[in-house]
Write a structure and sequence with these properties.
Radius of gyration: 15 Å
Helix content: 25-40%
Number of helices: 3
Distance between the termini: 26 Å
Structural class: alpha+beta
Mean pLDDT: 88
Strand order of the largest sheet: 1-3-2-4
Strand content: 15-25%
Low-confidence stretches: none
Number of strands: 4
Largest sheet: 4 strands, mixed
Shape: elongated
């Protein structure tokens, strides 16, 4: 519900940026889940639990359905973790970017 609300508030020409630990990144995802589990057990994390999602399969379709074009890029920079940057953009009013429209649920690599 929060993601849908945030997507609905993106103005024409605006972007929504999300940094997320991506469940769909194989071994990196396992390492990230392990570290987050330890952090939660030691109460280093502020929340009571950490929820992992497959960014391409779970978050991109929600944002695409709200009319946002999505791009997903790794942002782990030398770490073993599965962090990605999800950039969801709403085109400026009346503008075209020259690229073919993305199918609902599709993401373009950046």
């Amino acid at each position: 519900a929060l993601l849908r609300e945030a997507a609905a508030r993106v103005a024409p020409g605006g972007r929504l940026l999300l940094r997320e630990a991506d469940l769909g990144r194989g071994l990196r995802s396992l390492v990230t889940r392990g570290f987050e589990g330890v952090g939660t057990a030691l109460r280093v994390n502020r929340g009571e639990r950490v929820v992992f999602r497959d960014v391409e399969r779970e978050l991109v379709p929600i944002l695409a359905a709200a009319g946002l074009a999505c791009e997903v890029a790794p942002c782990w920079a030398g770490t073993p973790f599965s962090n990605v940057l999800l950039v969801a953009s709403r085109p400026p009013a009346g503008a075209t970017d020259g690229l073919a429209p993305l199918a609902p649920g599709a993401a373009r690599a950046i």
